């Protein structure tokens, strides 16, 4: 039997997270970049993988808050995906990703699709975009799998 000094609230949060992950056939676990989102099932090229969800805020509010989970919908609106219920926040950057984001026509939702066939157990990644890459990744060096292979090979 497992013992835990966790509060009831903490146990509820972890239980909810596990149920959500199982429901979506996705799981958050350790990756080379920290935490990453992995699939438990296969996805075919073009399949919907997950929606990037969060609070819809104005661009001005996004600039005020800052943070690394901000996903711009258009010039006026941004999704703040910092909440842990947003499993898509765990998709890491890759220079050679297996997923890509796409806005719906109303520019209100961000959907992540499979860019290629993805096998169970693979980490899900997408390219964060040139501005994010230049501002937050480039200086410290990209740690995605394709860049790590180039450094070691």
Task: Report on this structure.
The protein has 153 residues and is an alpha+beta fold. The protein contains 4 helices and 10 strands. It has helices at residues 8-23, 59-65, 130-137, 145-152; strands at 26-31, 34-39, 48-52, 55-58, 70-72, 77-80, 92-93, 99-103, 110-114, 123-126. The protein has a 4-stranded mixed beta sheet with strand order 1-2-10-7. A 3-stranded antiparallel beta sheet has the order 3-9-8, with no helix packed on it. Strands 4-6-5 form a 3-stranded antiparallel beta sheet. Strand 5 (70-72) and strand 6 form a beta hairpin. The mean pLDDT is 83.
In short:
With 153 residues, the chain is of the alpha+beta class. Helix content is 25%, strand content 29%.
List keywords for this structure.
153 residues; four-stranded mixed beta sheet; single chain; alpha+beta
Summarize model confidence as the mean pLDDT.
83
Low-confidence stretches: none
Characterize the overall form. globular
Q: Describe the strand arrangement of the main beta sheet, using strand numbers.
A: 1-2-10-7
How much helix, percentage-wise, in residues? 25-40%
Radius of gyration: 17 Å
Strand content: 25-35%
Topology:
Blueprint: H1 8-23, E1 26-31, E2 34-39, E3 48-52, E4 55-58, H2 59-65, E5 70-72, E6 77-80, E7 92-93, E8 99-103, E9 110-114, E10 123-126, H3 130-137, H4 145-152
Parallel strand pairs: 7-10
Antiparallel strand pairs: 1-2, 2-10, 3-9, 4-6, 5-6, 8-9
């Amino acid at each position: 039997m497992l013992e835990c000094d966790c509060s009831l609230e903490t146990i509820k949060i972890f239980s909810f997270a596990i149920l959500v992950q199982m429901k979506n056939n996705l799981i958050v676990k350790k990756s080379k970049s920290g935490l990453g989102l992995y699939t438990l099932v296969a996805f075919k090229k073009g399949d919907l993988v997950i929606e990037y969800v969060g609070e819809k805020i104005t661009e001005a509010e996004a600039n005020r808050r800052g943070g690394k989970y901000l996903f711009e919908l258009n010039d006026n609106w941004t999704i703040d995906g910092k909440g842990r219920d947003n499993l898509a926040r765990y998709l890491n950057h890759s220079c050679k990703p297996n997923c890509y984001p796409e806005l719906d026509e109303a520019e209100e939702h961000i959907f992540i699709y499979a860019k290629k066939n993805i096998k169970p157990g693979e980490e899900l990644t997408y390219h964060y975009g040139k501005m994010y890459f230049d501002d937050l990744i480039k200086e410290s060096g990209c740690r995605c799998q394709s860049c790590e292979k180039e450094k070691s090979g």
